[in-house]
Amino acid sequence: MPPQKPYAFVTYRSEAGAQKAHAQLNGKSLKCEDNVVTLYLSYVQSVPCEEAGSLSLPVGLTLLDSFVSPEEEALLLAALDWSPGNDEVTAQKAMKHRRVKHYGFEFRYDNNNVDKDKPLPAGIPAECLPILERCLSNQIIDILPDQLTVNQYESGQGIPPHIDTHSAFEETILSLSLGAQTVMDFRHPDGGLVALVLPGRSLLVMKGESRYLWTHGITPRKCDVVPSCDPQSSAPVPTDNQTQSRLTLSRRGTRTSFTFRRIRHEPCRCGFPSVCDSQRVSAVPEPSLPSLPTCHADAAHLEKEYVHRVYNSIAPHFSSTRHSPWPRVCHFLSSLPPGSMVADVGCGNGKYLSVNPEVIAVGCDRSSALIQICAERGFQVFVSDALMLPLHSASFDACISIAVIHHFSTQERRLAAVRELVRLLKPGGQALIYVWAYEQEYNKQRSKYLKEQSKEKYSMTNSTSNGTQDLCERSSQPLEDKHNSGENIQCVSKLADGKLSIHTNRTAFKSQDLLVPWHLKDEKIQRGEYSGENLDATERSSVTVFHRYYHLFQQGELEHLCGQITGVKVESSYHDQGNWCVLVEKTA
User: Fold this and answer.
1) 368 and 269 share a domain?
2) Residue 45: domain span
3) pLDDT tens-digit map of 460-514
4) Strand 182-187's sheet: what is its strand order?
5) What single-letter DSSP state applies at residue 496?
6) Is residue 4 domain-resident?
7) Residue 434 domain-assigned?
8) Phi and psi for 73 in degrees, rounded to 5?
9) Taking the mean position of all CA atoms in its chain, how far away is CA 23?
């Protein structure tokens, strides 16, 4: 089964078997639950087999296959009493997507924490002690857990993406899978995804970054896509960016997980303060949050600290996540006549500079680190501020500004950036502008940015202090069409005391002006791979999160901005995967 494709390859042992299958199955309709599926078969010369490269696990994550024997598995499952009479003894609950028991201490889902002064009558079952002693002797843990949560999942059930509350539990978390295998998704705040097959009788150990920073969850479905070479393999499942033809479907069964944790009695002091509820207040104290600027000097300072400095610091990591050009931008560039002069203002790592080899493209960016990456790729680029471009007026047939103007912090500076683009254009020249949209849900479609946070709707609430939000439907409501006049555009919400707020990644926006986190591993900074121009020695050893300033554009706002410039006509405007976009033409 090639990933993300509507077809699969089947290999038969004999030609006669293949002919018989083709005769009996081609064009036949099958009822699959509530759907009718029609099969179409055709011969191919060979089956492509492109193996995926090794996919590394999150730092601190270990999976130990066959950690318990079949006899131990049966003993542990038999020790569970799911009868209603044990509800108070083990804080037993029937959740929407699973049923749960707690031992030692109850984990409360109303506040995502434990009441450390109210231990449960039932401690960890004696049947678990030999397994925990084995973990001690193998140095997987250095102290016995005192809390156990048992989750039982039927086929089609799951658990939302979450991070176990930092202040509730110590670092090491053990998760023992019994019964059927499943696939658990681990997601980094920047969008990186590792889907890991958890075989029955395996032990998952989470420490460090995998425990504190990555969310983990199980998508509710009845089948998983897994490597077909070994149905019980614990290898990571290739995601969209990995190619792997040896995949198949694995039907889920009943799975029971034993999650062992140690109650924490002191505040957490991990190295990930942006997602740590113990450090949330002290990590970014309210007075340190910048205010929305009220003058040119304040705006320039804000952008220097929360745009220019950040992108220079994260340039290699940022570039590694920006490799797929957006299709509608590519269409615009590809439609230009051969020999056209094109300026990419805010070119980043230069991913659009090679889209159309028949045009003459130059790029510029404020980040010298990103420009260095472009230069190494052979592009014609230079460092420049988008407000003062060292290029002749009326010298370009086309300009693009992709995800740039939303980094300017005042209306005047955003207008100046658009005016500078127009200055470069010849009469009749066109500029394509993309900015991040406040409306991440538009025409009843959620953007990829929100879909990446959760591909399913759950009724369970996750603590915001853990870096996740309520996963129920909670999106910004799209505004009514203002006919691009801009007359009725209003600020979505006032900033508390004028301070910018820090956005929670992959959730709906709550204000138009905010700071968006970018997570960077400490060890990469310490090795000097990402050497920000303003990072001192203390920052090099402690910085894990950078914050980028954004102004989120409302519907009609970008058209209104362009409409304030004389000699410009808005040719078209549209919403493209969470961005507002306009194509403008210089008429004079």
Assistant:
1) no
2) 1-53
3) 223 333 332 222 222 333 333 333 333 334 444 445 567 898 988 778 888 999 9
4) 159-162, 215-218, 182-187, 193-198, 236-237
5) G
6) yes
7) yes
8) -60, -45
9) 45
